[in-house]
Design a protein that fits this description.
heterodimer; B: mainly beta; SH3 type barrels; 5 strands; globular; tRNA processing (chain B)
Chain lengths: 98, 86
């Protein structure tokens, strides 16, 4: 009520980077992690550390080993989880899926 | 002492790093991460942690275009530098 911003403004404006993450709540997001891992899942919750709670997650792990050396694409392993808590310090990038 | 002195050489002199960052909001930028990955896009916003929001982002790995993102949030601890494209 005492907010200078109108509610509709604060709901859609991107004033700081984390607003982009806020606008992705309950949407599918793509997350790039350290260690050549990627996640795709529905964003249930986040905080300022980028700790994330994701649902219906598909994790892709890129493996660069002797087998795939010289190949164009690294070997990938995918894992599926119903719910995942991601510790923020391993997050590199978060992007809303279009 | 505590108050920032007025820039004597014109209003556009950005003498501290955050002044530079706020000046290039909305401009096309290159962001390089410690991993060597490079992002090019339009700078939407930056905060004190150097978390970054980019629009129309292209991801380059080893100089090759890998991916496109409509919007991208980059966690600040991964950032090596932000450069305004000219």
């Amino acid at each position: 009520m005492a907010d200078a911003e109108s509610p509709s403004e604060s709901a859609t404006n991107v004033n700081e980077p984390l607003d982009l993450v806020r606008l992705s709540l309950n949407e599918t997001v793509f997350v790039k992690l350290r260690g050549d891992r990627e996640l795709k899942g529905r964003l249930h919750a986040y905080d300022s550390h980028c700790n994330l709670v994701l649902g219906e997650v598909e994790e892709t792990i890129y493996i660069f080993d002797d087998e795939t050396e010289g190949a164009d694409e690294p070997r990938t392993v995918t894992k599926n989880s119903e719910m995942l808590f991601v510790r923020g310090d391993s997050v590199v990038l978060i992007s809303p899926q279009q | 002492m505590s108050a920032a002195p007025q820039a004597p050489n014109g209003a556009n002199d950005s003498r501290d790093p955050s002044g530079f960052l706020s000046e290039i909001i909305g401009a096309p930028v290159t962001v390089k991460l410690n991993s060597g990955v490079v992002y090019k896009g339009e700078l939407q916003s930056v905060d004190g942690y150097m978390n970054i929001a980019l629009e129309q982002t292209k991801e380059f790995v080893d100089g090759k275009l890998r991916r496109n993102y409509g919007d991208a949030f980059v966690r600040g601890n991964n950032v090596m530098y932000i450069s305004a494209d000219t």
